[in-house]
Amino acid sequence: MAKATRASFKCTECGWTGPKWVGRCPECQAWSSVTEVSAAPTQAGLRSSTSGTTPIQKARAIKDIPVGEVERTSTGLAELDRVLGGGLVAGQCVLLAGEPGVGKSTLLLEAADKFATNGRKVLYISGEESAEQISIRAKRIGTKSTTLLIADETDLAVLLGHVEQVDPDLLVVDSVQTIASTELDGRAGGVAQVHEVTQVLTRAAKSRRMPLLLIGQSTRDNSVAGPRSLEHLVDTVLTFEGDRSTPLRLLRANKNRYGPADEVACFEQADDGLREVSDPSALFRSQRDQAVPGTCITITMEGRRALLVEVQALTTVSPSNNPIRRTSGIDNSRSAMLIAVTERAGRLKLWDKDVFLSTVAGAKITDPGADLGMCLAIASAVQDKALPIDLVAIGEVALSGDIRPVPGINQRLTEAARLGFATALVPKGTKLPPSAKGLNIIAVDNLTSAVKRFA
User: Fold this and answer.
1) What is the span of the domain harbouring residue 100?
2) For residues 267 and 251, is the Cβ–Cβ distance under 8 A?
3) Quick one: DSSP state of residue 184?
4) What is the pTM of this model?
């Protein structure tokens, strides 16, 4: 069968390939970057042979494969260890993403300092800041370790030279988008460069059994910037997020090959760096001695962690024919639905009132288990009747007004009992766990009965 050579076109900036030439790359939007390349001769459209080679090691039954405990090394930050699953594993590659200014570099600099306190060597490579700039931040957060080494470099080959010279126990690269390889065409931060740099660093880390912490940039929706394959190359993907108007920062695990992928850690931004928050429930609750109308406490689940959040509602008579609906920390679409359900279930008059919903300390609620708390806060505000200060409401509210069970109810009730609440309003059928003794639970099956009883 005759062989044919097929031509294709490739972008020199990002590596995009296509069957025909275009003036502007559809992937990276660069002009005049697409050039023609010749593909290898193909036969019948196939590039690989269908015949295989003898494997070196035979496939084994899953029951015959031994399972051992994974050794972990603590980073020195308990909250970071929690998200990682207990600490760093030898050769583990961690990618930390977050929007600019959220505190990614500060977090990893503190972790590097804590990691180096026991005499372990840490190499911190920065492609965004000079060594002098990093030194200023290190002094501000109180870094004192003598085995924490700093270098500013953007060339991949020189970076690997630093690794061979220092032979560190931990490598930190800030950020992967600033490092480029001279053996590959394209600018630093391009798709091809980011993919190549990450592959080389990952291979080097695993061959040396050296943990690697990479900082990556993020997009507007707080996802990792760059090629999607970047997240597949690393073992763990963490996202660092927070509102600039509040000091709270949340560290989430989106992927973790060595631990749970639903853990959340809390930090508080301060002048001297990031402080660990082991009990974040206190941040999301207003400190008051008596109940106030329009407020309700609920327990949300962030990953596997139960967090107390206070929901606040305010209703006023609207001067216009189109009442205002404003939210802060709560999804607009879901809040509009809950306002309508509360109006009908509680037989309340809300069509002529402006309704404002907010959370305390910049908390963001996406958990449907907070629906009941939001509805009771709205009902409490419109009737100017305060809910009991020791009451916590947990449950999902349907359009029909039914209150549905939510996952993690035992963790939520345990957290409520730990914080000293006396009564919990929960969906019907909920049983009190042994870890929440002393907590009185009141089961309700619909919003109408809950509003009549408390609001």
Assistant:
1) 72-278
2) yes
3) S
4) 0.78
